[in-house]
Each structure stands twice: as structure tokens, then as C-alpha cells.
Amino acid sequence: AWEICGNAIDENCNGDLTDCPPFGTIIVPAADGEDHEFGSTMLVRAYSPSATMTRVDIQSPDENDVYTLYLYDDGNHNDFDAGDGVWGNTWTVNGPGTGVYYMDLAFGNYPVIENARTFNVVSAGGCIPLQINGSSNDKLDVVFIADQYTAAELPLFATKVDQARNYFVTIAPFDTQQSKMNFYRVDSELNMGCGSSGSWQPNCNATNIYTAASVCPYDKVIVLVDGNFSSWSTLNGFAIVDAQDPIFDWNTVHEFGHSFAGLYPEYIKYLGTGGSASIIVNCDSNASCSKWDTVPGAGCFAGCTYNDWYRSINSGLMRTSGSTDFGPVNINRINDLFNSYN
After folding, report:
1. Sign, Cα dihedral of 302, 303, 304, 309
2. To bridge 231 with a disulfide, which of 60, 80, 148, 251 should be the other Cys (CB 3.0-4.6 Å)?
3. Contacts of 179 (CB under 8 A, 6+ apart)
4. Measured between alpha carbons, how far is 262 from 250 in angstroms, rounded to an integer?
5. Over the stretch 272-329, which tens digit does the pLDDT of each residue have?
6. How far is residue 78 from each of residues 25, 72, 88, measured CA to CA in Å?
């Protein structure tokens, strides 16, 4: 145990009541180089008696600020007893990736102690953070997982994920909303069953998909398949993308439009008539398109999943391969969903 000066208790049981740590010392983590899993809870304690405020500024491997953790000496934040000079709090480990992180210690009006402690952020059970913008509690967590990739091919999968993710955040409105998103990758060889050759609608094993994704925080899952089939998604569920397709990065955004925003296809997918589209965000069964007649820039064009439904943009991302425009109705829908995140 750490010796706490001035309380007449020999915490470390060595017969000396005065061998306390120097003022302004991080005492937990106890040493540099400790490993802490991404997403785990890390206890931080510092010894700074008589300080009026104590905080730890946590920095990423490139020494950019990740989080300011305020410590407390009130007996309620894993800090031992109130007023004993030991300040504490806990932090959910996150950041832009794995590697060595740094702690700067600040207390009261004293100068900041730079690199007072270092620690390592390591992946948790195969979860690899790619772009972390904050706590999973208030961000949209998106996880990429692999299907039909062997262990030797996982580096190729990682390259494909980076390509898809980098393209993803160039498309409006994800380009302006990316600060509300966290991205992860899972290098798993668990068979998702999606890659049936020539299958239009893959018969994925949903249990395996969510089991693989569960090593990360996740809200939405994107499966990249090293196979030969048409990309597909479940509305408000997971998206499956053929990573061999030359425009697989575009397909990733298109399928995410289905799985995240519940957008219906704006091409003609089914024969016959569609009936009422009252609950469909981006299709209208009314030929006047009254559903979005107050949305600036929205039009009215025949054909949206069914022949007798209508869409708001003539050639958009949910209809035409290669288009990078969701259209104002769909952009409004996606932005509305992001209002739930910070």
C-alpha cells in the first residue's frame, strides 16, 4: 500500500510513517508501461496533499490530447479517504489506437508535470480501434468484421477496411458527422456464412456476426466478404459488402444507408405495386411527393423500390452506382439520427 503522510497509520507496514511519495506523484498506475485493454476501466490515483485541484491530461501516442480526467479527494472516487491527499478517479480507456499513451499531471497553481506516467493501450480480444472520437456511451460505434478471409489474408482485410472507412467519411453527411462516430476492426476467422458464390442475398449467420462484433463496442456492423456475390444489408441491422467488387467502398456507404438509416432502394427492386409507403422515409406512394414537399432541393421522380412509388432525387446514392449524393431527404434523415449522438 502507498504510505499516506500525516494520518498516523503505517499503510505499507514498514515501521516508517513518513516515507510517503513525493508531492505530485501518480501512484496508480504504479509504474510506466502497464498494459490496459481498449474499453477497460483504468484506475488513476495521484498524491498531491494541500492541492485545490488535481487532473491528469491523457495523450495519445502522437501526443495529442485524448481526455482530461479530473481527480477527486472526497472519498467517493476510489481515492481512499476524503482529505488525505490521495486523489482518484477512473477512466474508460479509449483513443485513436493502440500504443504508448502519456499522462501529464496538473494540480492547483503548480506547473504541469509532463509525462508523469506512461501506459500502453492494447487491443481487447481482437478488437482493433481505428478512429476513436470519444466514449462509446455517446458515439455511433461501427465495427468492420471479416468473412471468408484466412489468417494469411487478414492484412488484406485490414487494407480493405481502411479504404472503405476513408471513402466513407468523404460522403455527406458522414463527412461532417464523423466526430460522432467510432470505428473498429475485428480480425476474426469465424465463418459468417455470407460468401456463397453467385448468391444475390447471402445467407449470413447472424449469431456469428454479432458474436464476432461483440469484442468491440458496437451499434452497427459491416461485414466485408472476400467472396463473389451482390452486396446486401438488413434494414436497421448489419451490412454485408463484397470486398472483391471494384466499387466495394461505394457499396459500403450504400448498404450502410439501408442498415443505419433504414433507407429503401431507390431503384426498381420489386415488380407490382407497393401499396402505402407512409412509414418509408425515402419513398412516397403519393405522386405529388407531399412527404417532402417542404424540403429544399427535393424533387419527385417515379420509381423507388416499386414502380408506383416515388423518390426525391433523380440519380442518387441509393439508386445509381458511383453517385456520391444521398439527396436532401436522405441527408436530413441521417442527420436526424445523429442527433442522438455527441
Report:
1. positive
2. 251
3. 133
4. 17
5. 999 999 999 999 999 999 999 999 999 999 999 999 999 999 999 999 999 999 999 9
6. 16, 9, 6
